[in-house]
Amino acid sequence: MKILVVEDETSLRELMTAALKKEGYVVESAADFASAMDKLGAYSYDCILLDIMLPGGSGLDLLSTLRKSDRKVNVIVISAKDSTDDKVAGLELGADDYLAKPFHLAELVARIRSVARRSMNGGEFSYSRGNVTLEPDSNRVLVDGRDVPLLKKEFDILAYLMQRPGHLVDKTVLAEAVWGDHVDQADNFQFVYAQMKNLRRKLEDAGADIEIRSVYGFGYKLM
To answer: What is the DSSP string of 3-59?
Structure first.
């Protein structure tokens, strides 16, 4: 899962980013309204942690703009302003949850997992396709009920594709989702090709009946 932390308080932003990376998420951050808008215009995210009070604008305005764009992304509003009016305003604009400062990082992680369950897979935090099941909470992949050991990036690639079965996924979008926004500065995508080759081999050896097809010049499709 790829997360954008929008928070102007440096120490909290860095703490959240480090904690979420430790949980295995791909995490980017923005410290003000303008940089958050730039990132949202250039990249895609699965979840946004959004402070209300930002230099240069309101997080609620950013949320409103995001929802008008009809992009599917989970948003958790995080703010010290724990008034009923702020909470109602955020939820009415389309926030998926609201978390008041100060909070425990364990609660933040639990909220992220909760909104992911609700929005992605009908309340169940696992994905199945053919005889393959992927469980994000436990980082397990099973083929016919048997564990298939995968490296972290192999697991992340498969998780991204299994959430989008049958969809053509641009290799750049896939790389950004798994390695982060700055991957667009790379000279080539050999690191993606290498991980994909290993992932396919492991799935084939395990007897998986799903297929990750290459679409020349574009990306991949899970069938």
So the answer is: EEEE-S-HHHHHHHHHHHHHTT-EEEEESSHHHHHHHHHH---SEEEEESEETTEEH
Going by the DSSP 8-state scheme, the letter that residue 84 receives in this structure is H
What backbone phi and psi angles, to 5 degrees, belong to 179?
-110, -15
Would the pLDDT of 190 be above 80? yes
66 close to 75: Cβ distance less than 8 angstroms: yes
Task: Provide CATH 1.10.10.10 ranges for the chain.
Answer: 127-222
DSSP line for 130-165: TTEEEETTTTEEEETTEE----HHHHHHHHHHHTST
Q: Mean of the per-residue pLDDT values for the chain?
A: 87
Q: List the structure tokens of 201.
A: 């081999």
Architecture category of domain 127-222 in CATH: Orthogonal Bundle (1.10)
Does residue 13 register a pLDDT over 90? Answer: yes
Q: Which amino acid is at 213?
A: R
What's the pTM? 0.73
Q: CATH says 2-120 is which class?
A: alpha beta
